[in-house]
Design a protein that fits this description.
heterotrimer, A mainly alpha (115), B alpha+beta (66), C alpha+beta (222), A: mainly alpha, B: 66 residues, alpha+beta, two-stranded antiparallel ribbon, 2 helices, 52% helix
Chain lengths: 115, 66, 222
Amino acid sequence: MTRDDKVLRAAGDLARVAGELERIGTALPRRVDADPERVEKGLAQLVLTLVELLRQLMERQALRRMDEGTLTDDEIERLGETFMKLEQRMDELVKEFGLERSDLNLNLGPLGDLL
Amino acid sequence: MTAPSSTPALQQQVTLLELVDRVLNKGVVLTGDVTLSVAGVDLVYVGLRVLLTSVATLERLDRESR
Amino acid sequence: MTLHLYAVAEHGVELPPVDGIDGASLRCVQVDDLDAIVSDVDGATSPTEAAVLTHAAVVDAVAAAADAVLPARFGSGFEQEGAVATEVGARRDELLRALERVRGCVELGVRALVGDVAAPEDTGATDSGRTYMLARLERVRAGERLCADLDSALAPVARAASSSVVGSEPLVVTGAYLVPRGDIDAFQERVDDLHRERPELTLICTGPWPPYSFATVDAARS
């Protein structure tokens, strides 16, 4: 199907923008077929995507409270360490399932609007 | 203002990415019930009760496959 | 069989001579003074490239012949026409308001990307949680500033503006602007001005799109 080119203006590294748009999840959700091994991977992808969504929501909430000044220094420190650890653990889990972080950009429909 | 690094292929790629973003992430949602088939799993949204619904679907799929 | 929804428009909208997903014919479900444009699909619609492109092509074609269209998000499935009618009927007022808001307008999108900001120096193990949080907060603020910069440059030539941060390493900000058809060139000039003022930003402007980002009934509040 031919498609009109909708780029009206482009300044800077267009390839980089395209790369980032793909990475942050504007690409089509990847299809995983029904082969048993891949179904597991597809489910892992789904579960980890939801976990990542929750992690981002929690972090966003914490940052908001930090910005408002309603967190103690101790709370900031502990939250920061927790989020760093969660981030690391997420990297590990993703690798364990043979995925990439960008695989966690499944389109979650209305749920994705929470972010 | 179009940069020399921009090529027709790249512009097509960006056009597609922008299009997909709009079609999948924007646009009016008339009902909380949106069904998307992702990774071979049907996600049925009933408002925000998506987690319960998809777990139920997974359990049913698991039962059916035994 | 379920019904796939493409768009909502005013009753009497011209159905374009194009097919829907999987070659199905388009039809209208009339609800009072509104028309819902649908086609029959087999079960849940999978967001394949072909289906997404078809959805977009249908919305584009409808928008080309109508003054006001509300694109529907991909994935709205209805068991039968009655279900469509119920949902459209229930949101009638909001939908009419949204149609008025987008009348005569297209959506123009702008993405701005800022290169990586140097990570703050590690001030020591005991401070690392706090350092992480401060760095994240600074990122959030940088994003908010960039959104504000985009909007102050571009919102004046738009009927409505909606910008948000969509990525943080590197910082990527998206702006969607509802622009009357006659003002598209003026908008482009503003984008060019912005590029001159902020040469360090990677900027892309795309469009014209049907008003996907302004079709939501939530957006009708802003």
